[in-house]
Amino acid sequence: MLDPALLRNQPTDLAQRLRETRGFDLDVAQIASLEADRKRIQVRTQELQNLRNTRSKQIGMLKAKGEDVSAVMAEVAVFGEELKASEVELDRIRGELEAIALGIPNLPDASVPMGADESGNVEQHRWGTPRAFDFEVQDHVGLGARHGWLDGDTAAKLSGARFTVLRGQLARLHRALAQFMLDLHSGEHGYEETNVPLLVNAESMRGTGQLPKFEEDLFSTQLGEHKRYLIPTSEVPLTNTVRDTIIEAERLPLRMTAHSLCFRAEAGAAGRDTRGMIRQHQFEKVELVSVCRASESDAEHERMTRCAETVLEKLGLPYRRVLLCSGDMGFGATKTFDLEVWLPSQGTYREISSCSNCGDFQARRMQARWRNPATGKPELVHTLNGSGVAVGRALIAVMENFQSADGSIEVPEVLRPYMGGVARIS
Description:
By secondary structure, this protein is of the alpha+beta class. The mean pLDDT is 95. The protein has 12 helices and 18 strands. The strands form 5 sheets. An 8-stranded mixed sheet has the order 1-11-12-13-16-10-9-4. Helix 3 (28-65) packs antiparallel against helix 4 and helix 7 (168-186) crosses helix 12 (391-401). The longest helix has 38 residues, at 28-65.
């Protein structure tokens, strides 16, 4: 959520910035009308509250003197009804203003390039050289199907489209990747390993920005009156651990990592990447989350991105880093680096990690703060999140980049301890 002062005091300037950077249309006239009503009703509500307090004291004084209070009581009853109605209307208007604020995306950082879509993204650097094959490469679906390792037909029978069953050595390789990433981030990179719920409440989804805007892309459950959502990423529960909290300065930065299942309806992805494991309703990811002071967030963003890059470098997977333009960033991000891994079957780089600095956008929604020892006062923290990395896409990249002509797959050196020393699966 953006600073409410921008909506109240600079709606026209804010609307222009959102239009130019995000392609988002803000209804300034609606906001101005609601703000005018809010101010008018708030003034009248305060007048009525003061009048009630004054009359209550008067009634007390009259009763103490033994005098008749019926006339004053009748007056209180009349404006008491008006006060109740005024308070209800004020809550309604505040709710409308909050709903508007919750639907506004974050503003891009000054260093973010302007652009309408991915064509405006800017490559930062590349690592590794794509392998030259002397045989016709197969994609991960073909490699997996040869051995019955990757079974989309059985998954479709069980659950429908965009699910996969993994078996045997491929399932073990998938598990090895997750364990390797988790050990790397919790050990060498200093993130605290965390195990989080896969079901969260609506408050948690609102805190990180999935609600209300993206409800159609979420899976949910209903048990009696309790509605819960399956997490689209462990960013949601990890970040919300600091919701409604004031963190002491010595605990910052907080760095957390979690390996979890993730669930996405992919409502806007009809017809895209329907083959194999590229875009699934259920997948696994090792997530990185940082909570820090505002002054630290740029450096923390770079550090987090390097942690994700290290995963790919240790696996020996060629990749490139891309700075996303304003029109291609996620809803809550102020700046995002994407890491794209080389997929030989497609002859291109595909996203495998997205590392975002959200500034105080999520913190304001969550009321997540830290206590500044210089002032003794609470201040909003900055939150960051990144894939460290997507396990299924890492599996795809390993399969394709380390394949042999006979369909076997070399196991990267760093994964062999997790595979019982196996150097090749076939």
